[in-house]
Each structure stands twice: as C-alpha cells, then as structure tokens.
From TrEMBL:
The keyword Nucleotidyltransferase applies. Gene3D superfamilies: NAD(P)-binding Rossmann-like Domain (3.40.50.720). Pfam families: ThiF. The keyword Nucleotidyltransferase applies. Signal peptide: none annotated. It comes from the Bacteria. Coiled coil: none annotated. Keywords: Nucleotidyltransferase, Transferase. SUPFAM superfamilies: Activating enzymes of the ubiquitin-like proteins. Residues 9-245 form the THIF-type NAD/FAD binding fold domain. The lineage of its organism: Bacteria, Pseudomonadati, Pseudomonadota, Betaproteobacteria, Burkholderiales. GO terms for molecular function: nucleotidyltransferase activity. This is Molybdopterin-synthase adenylyltransferase MoeB.
Amino acid sequence: MNDDQLLRYSRHILLDEIGIEGQQRALAASALVIGAGGLGSPAALYLASAGIGRIVLVDDDEVDLTNLQRQVLHTTARVGQAKAESGRTALLAINPGIDVVALRERADDARLAELVGQASVVLDCSDNFATRHAVNRACVAHTVPLVSGAVIRFDGQISVFDARRADSPCYSCLFPQDQHFEDVACSTMGVFAPLVGVVGAMQAAEALKLVMRVGQSLAGRLLLLDGRAMEWTSIGVARNADCPVCGCAG
C-alpha cells in the first residue's frame, strides 16, 4: 500500500483482526453488487469507503424521485440518470482510488455466470425472487460466497450463503426455487427508509469479513429484523441434501 492508502485505511489497520494483510485482501478483492437501490446504496458506499479494490454495480433502472427517500447513492440532481452510473459517481467521490464498473443491465443466467466468476464476493441487493435465484445458482456454480439481504415495510432479513463450505446452505435451500413466492414491491407496500441502511450496511460488513477473512460469517444463520420493535431473531438454516441447486440432486 502507498502512503495515502495507509492513512486512508489506518483505522482498519489498527484492528488486530484486520491489519495490513486484511486490508490488502480487501484492495485485491472484487465485489459484485446486484442492485443499486435501497440495499445496494449503503452496501456499495461502505465497500467503497472500506477499500474493496473493484466494485461492479449492476442495475438496469433509472433514478426516480421516489427513490431518494432511501437510496442514498443518488441525488436530486441525478434523477433520470442510470442508477449504475449515478452509483459509480457517488462511489468514486468517496474513494477515487478504487475501480468501479457500472453496468446498466438486467443480467440473465449467462451474464451472471460471467460476472460471478470474476468476483470475490457477491451482494444480492435485488428486489425479486427470480433475480435472487439466478444469482444464487451462479454463486453455487462458481463457489463464490453470496451475501443476501431484503427489506420491505418494517421488516428486514440478511444471511450468507457460502458455497465454499460443505455445510453451508444456498438460497434455494431456504426458499426453494420450485416453489412460488410472491414478490412484494416497496412501490405498493412501502419501506421504512433507515432499515435498508441497517441491512445494507450489514451486507457490506459480512462481505468485508469474508474477503478479509475476519470472524465468523452468517452462513447457516438467517437474521430477521422487526423494525417496529427493533428486535433481531436468529434462525438456523441447514443445507438441504435434496436441493436441486447445491445438494446431491444438483
């Protein structure tokens, strides 16, 4: 690291669990962030400020005035811009020393296979089950750890699905892809703005822990947040041996 990096990341380097080696791992890492909205905003901002060397931001949408209540990557001046490009502007303003790739697209299975194969960690900040399952399949196929988050109304959830571990479930173990789950949109149900900040920041924390090799991840655990009571519930999630994505049937 150069002098600027040593100064910029000095508060990480002071932590015995991270140190120079952990920070260097972050700088050498590539994070794929699917979605530059409510969750992707705080997640990407913290990844950038913490020194993830390469961030690939994928989103096919444009910044809308209704987004600004919670999507802190974007500004009023950038309404109408592609979210991926707006996000890139915000991330480089915080840390010009990293590489940020903005992709305005809705990645299909083939594209996800390409993008995930180049990533050190994937953060699923999307808002629909089809995308979540597609991202999960790609992460399992390429043995790349996945940090998954979701928020609607006053409820949030977060977990890690680490295909590198034989005992770790995948997203489909928890929400089987052959079962129907109704997508609930914040445009019709609403969302309490700070909760996406809470869950998105936790996604960044889990991703950083994974690439820096610090602590224990949420693999095998699902955290549920009740924002009204501000209470967390931790649920154990086991790997399904019959899962068509990661199990023996896969």
